[in-house]
Amino acid sequence: MNDEKDEVTLNRSLGLWSALALVIGTIIGSGVFVRQAAVLDDAGSTTNAMLAWLAGGVITLTAGLTIAEIASQMPKTGGLYYYMEKIYGKVWGFLSGWMQIIIYGPAMIASLAAYLGILLVDFFDMPHSWTVPIALITVALVAGLNLLSNRYGATFAIVTTICKLLPVIALIGFGLFFGKEDAFAQSFSSVHQSAGNFGVAILATLFAFDGWILVANLGDEIKNPEKRLPQAITIGITLVLGIYLLVSFGVFRSMPATQIHDLGIGAIPYMAEKDFGAIGGKLLSIGIIISIVGCMNGKIMTFPRIMYAMARDHELPFAKQLSYLNRHTQTPIVSVITTVAISAIMILFFDADRLSELCIFTVYCFYVMTFVGAFILRKRHPNLKRPFSTPFFPITPIIAIFGSLFVIVSEIHSDLLGVLFSLVFVLIGFPVYYYCRKHYQIQD
């Protein structure tokens, strides 16, 4: 039975376009559509808002360039979990993976599904009682797709990425060619007393850039990963940065800052309907729906790979089942089903959006450790030929470290109880780790 199992491996079939679509698709969800007013409110002017999006993008890009170097040296399934284990040891790798598979990943999937349920109910003018069932059905359908060969999930990622870019291009194009406002000189701090908190504005943009690292979870399924993973991460983040800046510019060219502030999350839907009519508003809604489905697909495709990798290393209970690969599809179907089952429980009984927020602190703690790991690896292997080297080293990883520390400090300042909860949950992983070490008779 073990010999038969060993013959089944993950399918290394994903090329650069698939990896690139997953990077873009897992970053661009609803953030760029709903956070414009929030960033503007905190920045206090359109110029500062644009600078906040730029700063968030630059911090994310430095993080991506740093991880790209590490990924090129160890392009294995599990991504952050694998890097932490190889740099700091098995217990740190386990804790980073534990937090992602039990709360962070499922909560993000559940949060997207819940928001999607609201959008679909509103779009089709259905009773609000249908919100939760639609969220569950959507998660089940996307999960079903990812029980098939990874080619299907990757193709779906490419298609949804192309579709979600169409409304983005429309918003950008209208602002560039028909907008009449000054995108760089509008200020409204006089009507909004809390305006001008530039750091909070950057923090809001960083959350809209999150998700770029998840493609690294597919290291064993990407062709020539030493080269393709760094390319997908760096090109993907750069493209998203350009898209976010252009969308903001288009919005600020099309609407007065005070109106964007007054409309809040309804600013872009209002803009679409005003510029393109009722049909335009509907098309934008469809674009946002597709965007969220594509983002959900990327997360359902990548997070179970962490669970699979941990189970393969005998670091989880029911390791034999969770590390099972279907012989025909070569996908970790039990890990996929388990991940979406946890998400479904969160949709039914918890505030998934709040749960995902609680994990931000610990996620960024592990990010900082991994960025520092780039220095450790260079010192540990000074003569190693790296397939990809972070440009402008050490400045680039230092910016990534300080950007992540900014998020950590901000979380402590704004949500200390949430930070403590997330730390407690990580600590719960210790007995699980040592139970598995003892159960599977693994020596340290």
From TrEMBL:
Subcellular location: Membrane
Record's signal peptide: none
Membrane topology type: Multi-pass membrane protein
Transmembrane regions: 14-38, 50-71, 92-118, 130-148, 155-178, 198-219, 231-252, 283-308, 329-349, 355-377, 389-410, 416-436
GO cellular component: membrane
Single Gene Ontology MF annotation: L-amino acid transmembrane transporter activity
Swiss-Prot/TrEMBL keywords: Membrane, Transmembrane, Transmembrane helix
Main location: membrane
Taxonomic superkingdom: Bacteria
PANTHER family (alphabetical): AMINO ACID TRANSPORTER, SOBREMESA, ISOFORM B
Protein's recorded name: Amino acid permease-associated protein
Organism: Pediococcus cellicola
